[in-house]
Design a protein that fits this description.
Layout lengths: L2 H16 L38 H14 L14 H9 L2 H4 L11 H8 L8 H20 L8 H13 L10 H17 L11 H6 L31
Helix pairs in contact: 2-7, 3-8, 7-8
Length: about 240
Amino acid sequence: MNRREALFSLGTIAASLAVAPSLSAAELKGVPHETQLSDDHLPKPAIRTGGFLVLSAVERETLGAVYDRLLPADEYGPSATQAGCLEFIDSQLAGDYGSGKALYLDGPISPANELKLMGTPQFLATPLVRYRVGLEALLTYAKRHFSKPFAELSPAQIDEFLTKLEAGDVDLGAEIDSKAFFELLLQNVREGYLSDPIYGGNRNMAGWKMIGFPGARYDYRPYIDRRGENLSLIPVSLIPAD
């Protein structure tokens, strides 16, 4: 499975759920006031002030070079940076995600035990710190092995590096689990490419158009009986219409 097929498989699952033929809706009445959505459950638009919030120019260049090899531009759609994935992750790292608000970050921690119990490495560092330390390590690695900044490496060199990073075969220092760092980068670039544009990525809904996902439509009842048909629906974002 190539990179774009991986994205397509995720979108196909979401789209199939959206038009499931056996679903029906009923109006709810007398719902207790206490069950209404709180602010924590409402979508929070990406914070844009005309520039980036936490990522420095060098960090953006380094991360952009990685993102654009994970999701390069081709005949199916734009690259990760063209689709706004840097803006997406910058806004996320500047908020609750970057500060690890939803994570348990207190010690003690035993890497071997945590991996056995949780099935994945656990970290005390916040996502923002992991990005900062990881991107700095990429710069150091590139200068040591190629005598140039990471962003100036050729596509073939970056692909080879990412392949080794994914396998955990790159030594980026004692503080960094290289395989886990790759998985973090891949997860976030996917999220930026396929999330609602209200969060800064998926510019012009390019990711949704590529996989045929109809977006945040309010009502699918007109299409319930059209199973197996290509509806060719134009994606709809959570961004309020003018």
